[in-house]
């Protein structure tokens, strides 16, 4: 009897000699006898082996036969093993009862007949074998039924189901595989199933399957199968699990492939929309972002993506075209340039832009290509692109068509359906919103820039609507008039601008901005106690009239001063010229005899008036140089007292009778840093001015004293004095305190202006202190020369009166 066919018998007795005796009795049966000398050892054997029968001694130390039997019967695996008790001591009825209660099938007393024991054991051996045979037959039948059930289940499942051998070679594909891919199951088993896979997925699928077969790990991958019904590739999730036997050895693989194309496209659509929205929102340059979106759509959504925009002239212009192959992109652009979008075509971006309705062509046929070709050239070239499916959707925002987005499927084998069209329409909607927002932002930015221009422009600008209400009043208008926008806007112009009703008809209003024929009108406007002269022009439109005005009040005052200056200069020039001319004519007369004294007197008049005329001309030239910045200033260390003394001595020679000139200055004054000639001219002008405005005579004193870092020259007179309101204006060019010469005081109005500018150029100060009718004190401070002593006997005058 082979070892595989022998049955295990467990012999349990605490006496070795008894075990040997049992072994000798049962040896003729030819079975596998396993011996145990205790109940614990018997239990250990039962954990690892199956037995047909257990021969168990009752009396054993620690764990007796009854206790061992009870433990055996408690385990599911050993509960059905027959037990025969063997005993030479426990022969009482209660012991026998306990033995049967513990699960025994027989209770044999020692000594026993060996033949009878062998017969009983043989019966149980046969029973065990028959039970095993029945079990194996049942298992075989069950496995056969289960396999048939599994096969029927696999055939009825809507998913693709497959099985392979342990080495990964296919052995079965269900009917769904054949119906879906068009490849027969037996052909797939033979090795042609790979043809149903997308070419781009074959290599990575084979590699992933090889890894799983070698490692025994679960197989899972997403790849595309060709669907035979429409020849399109659709995404599937394939999973495979190893089938292992009781020892853990892989005996095969079973797997499924589930169509997840719709779910994957929905996920990709959401991801794409999120990415597209991010790109669209990343910049206000919508042309750039739309190009990026077109690139983003390839190849996940389309093999080709194009964007066409509606131009202002109503034409359609291609903004972007994208494909993974740059050469194909160049080819497509060449076709677009050669054959621009035609709104009269039955299909295409131009048609979608014109109608505002989306187009979808699930399958592009050769007939469609032929119908759309304009000549033989595109008919020969377009098939090379392999176009399969197409859709085009309009970009519409706030009811306005902005353009269209086109999607074309080619080498991917994708076929567009309703879900794809909805995705395309959502993308176009978001793109249209982005374009519209960019346009709105641009217009808002232009309006903001216009508002900024209005806020910073130097001219006043106001808007008065058709009802005469002020709607706009810019900062320049506030500055010119002194009227705040909050006080003006929303109120009628005639109520807040005195005399507006009379002034408005005088202002020219054009209907065309920038019309050269409309000249601005200069009109007066009384604001409180101020009289403003404004240059005003207007432009009318549907909402009212925009007026622009410029303040000419100061220019008008300067013009008035210029006219007065011209008149004054003319007078000042005529006076010496008249004296010179009269004296010259007198000298030339031959009808009278002039004595030497008279002739010398007349020549003196000519010389004196010539000097006066030269001084006027020099003042005019100096003022011109000061205005143009051409006057050269060369400073040096000089003696301010000596210069002042020269000026006082010179003034005494021509001062009117009754005017007394004095110099009040210590001998040891520090030197100053100045241009000697220009400083002398400043002192001369101020002393001359004091003499001129002391018509009744009086003392004029030139005081000199150091003051901190300066040397101060103060020219004090007791003449007419200067009103407080005029004390800052007397240093303006052309300004004269007595323009009408009511006191006979002439002049060009340039002397004090020249003084101010010359003093300012050496970083000095000039101001006046005066009371009307009591005289004036003109103060000049010139910086001390470097290293000169600094004394502070007096405080400096306030800045408000500084020149």
Can you describe this structure?
- Helix 9 (261-280) packs parallel to helix 15, helix 20 packs antiparallel against helix 21 (596-628) and helix 23 (676-692) runs antiparallel to helix 24 (751-760).
- 43% of the residues lie in helices and 23% in strands.
- By secondary structure, the protein is α+β, with helices and mostly antiparallel strands.
Strand-residue fraction? 15-25%
Strand runs, count:
28
| Mean pLDDT reading | 83
C-alpha end-to-end distance: 139 Å
* Shape call: elongated
What class, by secondary structure content? alpha+beta
Question: Could you give the topology of this structure?
Answer:
Elements: E1 8-12, H1 16-26, E2 32-36, H2 39-48, E3 53-57, H3 65-74, E4 83-87, H4 93-101, E5 106-109, H5 114-156, E6 160-164, E7 170-173, H6 175-181, H7 185-192, H8 202-215, E8 219-227, E9 232-244, E10 250-259, H9 261-280, H10 286-297, E11 304-310, E12 316-322, H11 326-338, H12 349-355, E13 359-361, H13 366-372, H14 376-381, E14 389-397, E15 400-409, H15 418-456, E16 460-465, E17 470-473, H16 475-481, H17 485-488, H18 493-496, H19 500-503, E18 509-510, E19 521-527, E20 530-541, E21 544-551, H20 553-588, H21 596-628, E22 636-638, H22 640-654, E23 659-664, E24 672-674, H23 676-692, E25 698-707, E26 710-716, H24 751-760, E27 765-771, E28 775-783
Parallel strand pairs: 1-2, 1-3, 3-4, 4-5, 18-20, 23-25
Antiparallel strand pairs: 6-7, 6-10, 8-9, 9-10, 11-12, 11-15, 13-14, 14-15, 16-17, 16-21, 19-20, 20-21, 22-24, 25-26, 26-28, 27-28
Helix pairs in contact: 2-3, 9-10, 9-15, 20-21, 21-24, 22-23, 23-24
């Amino acid at each position: 009897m082979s070892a595989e066919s022998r049955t295990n018998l467990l012999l349990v007795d605490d006496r070795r000699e008894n075990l040997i005796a049992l072994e000798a009795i049962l040896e003729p049966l030819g079975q596998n006898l396993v011996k145990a000398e205790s109940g614990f050892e018997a239990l250990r054997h039962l954990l690892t082996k199956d037995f047909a029968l257990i021969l168990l001694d009752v009396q054993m130390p620690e764990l007796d036969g009854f206790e061992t039997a009870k433990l055996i019967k408690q385990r599911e695996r050993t509960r059905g093993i027959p037990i025969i008790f063997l005993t030479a001591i426990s022969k009482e009825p209660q012991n026998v009862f306990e033995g049967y209660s513990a699960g025994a099938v027989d209770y044999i007393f020692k000594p026993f007949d060996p033949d009878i024991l062998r017969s009983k054991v043989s019966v149980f051996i046969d029973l065990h074998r028959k039970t095993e045979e029945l079990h194996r037959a049942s298992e075989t039948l069950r496995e056969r039924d289960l396999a048939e059930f599994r096969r029927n289940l696999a055939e009825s499942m809507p998913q693709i189901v497959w099985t392979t051998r342990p080495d990964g070679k296919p052995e079965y594909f269900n009917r769904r595989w054949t119906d879906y891919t068009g490849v027969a199951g037996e052909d797939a088993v033979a090795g042609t199933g790979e043809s149903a896979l997308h070419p781009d997925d074959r290599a990575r699928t084979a590699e992933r399957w090889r890894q799983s077969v070698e490692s025994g790990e679960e197989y899972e991958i997403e790849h595309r199968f060709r669907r035979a019904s429409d020849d399109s590739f659709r995404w599937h999730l394939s999973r495979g699990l190893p089938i292992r036997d009781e020892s853990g050895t892989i005996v095969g693989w079973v797997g499924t492939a589930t169509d997840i194309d719709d779910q994957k496209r929905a996920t990709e659509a959401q991801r794409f929309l999120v990415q597209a929205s991010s790109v669209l929102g990343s910049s206000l340059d919508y042309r750039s972002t739309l190009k990026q979106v077109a690139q983003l759509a390839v190849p996940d959504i389309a093999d080709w993506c194009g964007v066409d925009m509606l131009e202002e002239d109503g034409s359609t212009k291609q903004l972007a075209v994208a494909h993974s192959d740059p050469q194909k992109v160049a080819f497509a652009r060449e076709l677009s340039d050669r054959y621009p979008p035609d709104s009269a075509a039955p299909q295409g971006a131009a048609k979608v832009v014109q109608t505002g309705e989306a187009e979808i062509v699930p399958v592009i046929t050769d007939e469609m290509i032929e119908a759309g070709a304009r000549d033989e050239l595109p008919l020969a070239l377009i098939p090379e692109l392999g176009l399969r499916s197409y859709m085009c959707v309009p970009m519409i925002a706030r009811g306005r068509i902005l353009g269209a987005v086109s999607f074309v499927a080619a080498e991917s084998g994708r076929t567009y359906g309703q879900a794809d069209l909805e995705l395309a329409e959502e993308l176009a909607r978001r793109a249209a919103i982005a374009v519209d927002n960019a346009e709105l932002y641009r217009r808002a930015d232009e309006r903001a820039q216009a508002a900024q221009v209005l806020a910073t422009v130097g001219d006043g600008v106001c808007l008065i609507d058709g009802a005469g209400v002020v709607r706009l009043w810019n900062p320049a208008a506030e500055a010119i008039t002194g009227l705040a926008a909050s006080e003006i806007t929303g109120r009628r112009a005639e109520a807040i601008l005195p005399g507006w009703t009379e002034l408005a008809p005088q202002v020219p209003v054009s209907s065309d901005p920038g019309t050269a024929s409309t000249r601005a009108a200069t009109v007066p406007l009384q604001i409180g106690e101020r009289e403003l002269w404004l240059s005003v022009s207007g432009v009318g439109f549907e909402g009212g009239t925009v007026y622009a005005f410029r303040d000419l009040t100061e220019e008008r005052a300067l013009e008035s001063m210029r006219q007065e200056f011209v008149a004054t200069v003319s007078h000042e020039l005529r006076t010496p010229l008249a004296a010179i001319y009269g004296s010259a004519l007198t000298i030339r007369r031959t009808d009278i005899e002039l004595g030497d004294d008279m002739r010398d007197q007349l020549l003196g008049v000519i010389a004196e008036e010539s000097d006066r005329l030269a001084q006027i001309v020099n003042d005019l030239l100096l003022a011109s140089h000061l205005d143009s910045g051409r006057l050269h200033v060369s400073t040096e260390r000089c003696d301010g007292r000596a210069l002042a003394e020269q000026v006082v001595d010179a003034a005494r020679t021509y001062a009117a009778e009754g005017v007394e000139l004095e110099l009040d200055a210590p001998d040891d004054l520090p030197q100053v840093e100045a241009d000697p000639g220009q400083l002398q001219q400043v002192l001369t002008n101020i002393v001359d001015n004091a003499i001129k405005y002391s018509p009744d005579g009086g003392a004029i004193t030139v005081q000199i004293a150091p003051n901190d870092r300066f040397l101060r020259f103060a020219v004090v007179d007791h003449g007419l004095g200067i009103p407080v309101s005029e004390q800052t204006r007397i240093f303006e060019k052309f300004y004269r305190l007595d323009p009408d010469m009511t006191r006979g005081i002439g002049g060009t109005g340039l002397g004090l202006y020249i003084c101010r500018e010359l003093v300012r150029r050496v970083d000095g100060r000039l101001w006046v202190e005066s009371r009307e009718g009591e005289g004036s004190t003109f103060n000049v401070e010139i910086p001390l020369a470097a290293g000169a002593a600094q004394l502070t006997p007096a405080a400096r005058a306030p800045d408000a009166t500084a020149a």
